[in-house]
Records
---
Amino acid sequence: MKISFKSVYIKPNLFYTLIAISLVLLISCSEKVDENYAKEVKEWHKARIERLTKPDSWLSLAGLFWLKEGENSFGSDTSNNFVFPPNKAPGFIGKFLLEDSTVTVKINPGVEILSDGKKVDELVLRDDQSGNPNLLEYGPLSWYSIRRGEKYGIRLKNSLNPALENFEGIKTFQVSERWKIKADLIPYNPPKMIEVPSVIGTIDKEESPGALRFKFEDSEYRLDPLKSGDGYFLIFADKTSGDETYGAGRFLYIEPPDSLGNIYIDFNKAYNPPCAFSRYATCPLPPKDNFLSLAVEAGEKNYKGAH
């Protein structure tokens, strides 16, 4: 059979373009990552998964109930204001009473609910904003009071929650050192107050110490972090949000400056907020200036397991 070479002729410009594309793909596929750094990120993610699979983790969330002023009954019977999981709790446990920003729990006679190992009959509840909320327990269930703005609620956890027992792990992008980026902190003087919205519609005003400025592929970007201990906390979204990564953005903790004063944004350690795993979380959303106009192909991908 005779083959015509004219049919496979490639114009020189196209030929060199294809060669260039092939070289880019070859380089990207064969990127070498420092072994110690790859191990560091792997260990970080392993610890992250260990925390996420503990009996009281975000995967154990089994309910979120917003209190109305006055009495709010709760238990596993469907006639209650707040219905707990069937076969996990008594039908009628008691009532939560919300009066003038104070939440009190009153337990029905004959029902044994514990807090700090002691039986509870009536108790004024400290909420989560106190840093030490009163935890109430019955079998695999535990619950406590939370406050979001002017709203008060009850967060319920179940150590036997299906979302916890059926956890499928979290896929991540391939570790790449190009996503560990040196940044400069441009201080705000005075510190800038930024609005941080949440999935439940509240807006908190938080203090940002300065803008983190960094370059990626010759373009400059800025992000507003929050202070977190000696380091910083970022809530951000990017062009992968809603596609390869969680639609409402991701979280990232930034280590304090190193011994030379350098700050690094390590997007390989970007992780999903609790709302990616449960509809009962009350996650903050990215502030308006933290939407990046680039695709951050690093860190955790969107969780595909069922809520």
---
Amino acid sequence: MSDLEQYYRVLELEPGATLEEVNQAYKDLVFVWHPDRIPKDNLRLQQKAQDKLKAINEAREKLRSLKTKPQTTFSSPPPQQEKPSQTTQRPPKQNSDLSGKDYSRANLSNKDLSGRNLSYANLSGANLSDTFMHKVNLRGANLSEANLFRANLLLADLREANLRAANLIGADLSGADLRGADLTGARIRSGERLLVKLVGTNLAGAIMPDGSIYQ
């Protein structure tokens, strides 16, 4: 088996899968194998998860490099007027400082924003459904009326964030820091059923959807 075929197999994909399929498979597998989801005292599974993540990351980077390389060989660059639309459809670069940026009403669905600094950014009304935001910094960010349906916010920093009227149905906020956040009117239930994962979430001082302050 060639290295290329092995990379596809690691991501549980058929050879020739698109870049979008590669990115989606990566997000799904990281969600499944992230060590934070495994009991700390289970050393065997912790080690297995670390090995899996290493292989998953390597496979994704190799396939992304392969699939984006041909784009650099074009003799003529795309028309200048096309650049803004391309930029808005791609997630911001890893490690870039996006604090205070305006992404209001932006469509960031299914993007990988994990680990990025979006503190005090304006994401009001943004579509963040199925977006992967593990360890993202959203401190003080404006997420009012944002759609966070099934968003992965594991260990996210949401201190003092504005989540008023946001849709949090299906979101995973396990381990997230929501101290002082405002969740007034946020959607977290269907009837009496809670539909948000809050395992290990810090809600001290947060304003809950019903307007009460979490003690």
---
Amino acid sequence: MKKNSVLFGIIIGVIAPLIGMLGYYFWKFYPTYSVGDFIGIILSEKTILSALSTFALFANVVLLTIYLNTRRDETAKGIFLISCIYAIAAIVLKLFM
């Protein structure tokens, strides 16, 4: 796979927020809550969902900045696309949960 492609950007754009969410879990909830409890809290508390989505999308912002500054624009397009999808999903979940 090319290092400067939209597909590569999409892949790392999906993985980075998941790592960001895992980091948020370890920062705020570990060892008091299990991962299952953490997911239950996310689904029941809108404020936690907002904080979590912000933390997760920050991981993509960091990657997007790195890829834009190194002139790997195709990869940055993929990261930006996934970031927009994550942001829209977070807004929809917050409004309709």
